[in-house]
Amino acid sequence: MAETVDAREKGTISIHTENIFPIIKKFLYSDHEIFLRELVSNAVDATQKLKKLSSIGEFNGELGELRVEVSFDKDKKTITVSDRGIGMTGDEIKKYINQIAFSGATEFVEKFKDKGDAKDIIGKFGLGFYSAFMVADKVEIISRSYKAGENEAARWECDGSTEFELSTTTKKDRGTDIILYINSDSEEFLDEWRLNSILEKYCKFLPVEIKFGTKNENVEDGTDAEGKPQYKTVTTDRIINNPAPLWAKSPSDLKDEDYLKFYKELYPFSEEPLFWIHLNVDYPFSLTGVLYFPKVKNDFELQRNKIQLYSRQVFITDEVKDVVPDFLMLLHGVLDSPDIPLNVSRSYLQSDANVKKISQHITKKVADKLQEIFKKDRADFEKKWDDINIFVKYGMISDEKFYEKAKDFALFKNIDKQYFTFEEYKEKVKPNQTDKDGNLVYIYASDAGKQDSFIEGAKNKAYDVLLLDGVLDSHFINTLEQKLEKVQLKRVDSETADKLIDKDEKIESVLSTEEVEQVKTVFEKAINNKNFTVSVEPMSPGDLPVVVTMSEFMRRMKDMAKTGGGGGYAFMGAMPDNYNVAVNGNHPITQKILKAESDDAKSKLAKQAYDLALLSQNMLTGADLTNFIKRSVDLVS
């Protein structure tokens, strides 16, 4: 128990302005729980400094048990953070606590007083301790330096004004106790589980043990007469943290099961990750961490904010969009860097040169890891492709440097579940899918089930069909056409099979010009929809009698609008759907329509052929589907 002696000193905190405390409270208000993070972090720093002094022979005393303890007293309305670190003398308290030593404080206050934002206030100006005044009416420090005798402890007290009182006191052991007298607006923090949750959030991996109260555990206590284990309940210290987290260890000392166990510690309800990257950089910046590749679902927006950012093992935020490239926000894991500047008032990251370098480094490491897996075990990489392709494609769309690396390991998958690199696919389709202008045409399906009849038509011409059915593929297709020289991509149902690749091959029509016009008129009347444009074309007699398509351009614009293309894409998405109806002039049904005895019979046959085309696209619904079924029954009766 501390005991005050006579030596007292009163003074004014040297901050050159009385407005500093309202400014601190204003900046930190939205994250007021971080007062505990700041005080515990300071206590950990003091402990580590003592360990360092001991290691270099500057401190020869017994270190004893080094841990930080957090406690609270609901009746007295106090929260106490205690450590057994280096402690402070009265002079050191005056130096580090009283003199908030930055020049031009008045200008600082004037500059930021009307803004809800300021860069790195705490880190730059040593104000971490003063975050205590967000929740406390009064703060007391009792500290004894590791160099001092038992009766040379110091006691400092301040009520949140610029006035303080410093006196001598006694303290049994070295170190510092920070005692907060909680104000009436912050009594929510005088709760065991509230404090526990804050400590677990921010201090879960601090490098010094953090004790907070006790917990009951069941431990084995011998066996009964039948040899079955007996248990008893014991009370143990509740240690909040794991002082030696996996990312702080050397990769050479770790096994796969260590990484998987740590993943479960971070994300207890997630599936096992596919693989991971252990980051360990010393120069030109400091960065450690482990990034895990999860199994990404198509609703990838729900997967974000899974990477946790730490600074010297202190949790900062899980909003890492400025440090991690947007396409890698789908990853899970931990990053730890003391070199990332922080706006502590909201824990948002500031975009500066260091952050950009770190972001670029992470991008490079991810690309290198994927390249390594691809080269080491192609078959294993192909198995993972369906899970990882979403962020590989996202990266290729959004990051030029990543595209340049990824184009060597990114894969195309066709509807037969075969995988090809870009170069392999080019060589595969070049002989049969080159148009009259020398362009390679890559044909793709976006929904193999719905587009099956079109896929069969393409296969009948020995064309290969890619499967591009992911949430980002409409954007990815545009990127490919920009990057791949003399390559066009066409959706399999955007044209009739004969027109997908223009090889300047003519199919003779069996219809006269007059018959073509007759057939066109019959179908236009039967369809009676201005959004459907009818044409009669010579095709193979084995092709479908009618094919309904939307142009590649229109389909792509609408797909882009659905996936948030923005700009002109949103306008295209609001436009009515326009379709082309290609009637096969060489099909036997066309001849049957021409030979029908009445206009009604012609119209019925045309409508039936048209509805068959709609049915093949899953576009026939409601009353139209019912009528088609009735008409089909009549025709076969």
From TrEMBL:
Localization: Cytoplasm
Family affiliation: Belongs to the heat shock protein 90 family.
Assembly: Homodimer.
Main localization category: cytoplasm
Alphabetized InterPro entries for the sequence: HATPase_C_sf, Heat_shock_protein_90_CS, HSP90_C, Hsp90_fam, Hsp90_N, Ribosomal_Su5_D2-typ_SF
Protein name (Swiss-Prot/TrEMBL): Chaperone protein HtpG
CDD domains listed in its UniProt record: HATPase_Hsp90-like (cd16927)
Keyword field: ATP-binding, Chaperone, Cytoplasm, Nucleotide-binding, Stress response
Oxidoreductase recorded as keyword: no
Biological role: Molecular chaperone. Has ATPase activity.
Record has ATP-binding as a keyword: yes
Region feature C, mapped onto this chain: 563-637
Residue ranges of the region described as B: 347-562
Residue numbers spanned by region A: 1-346
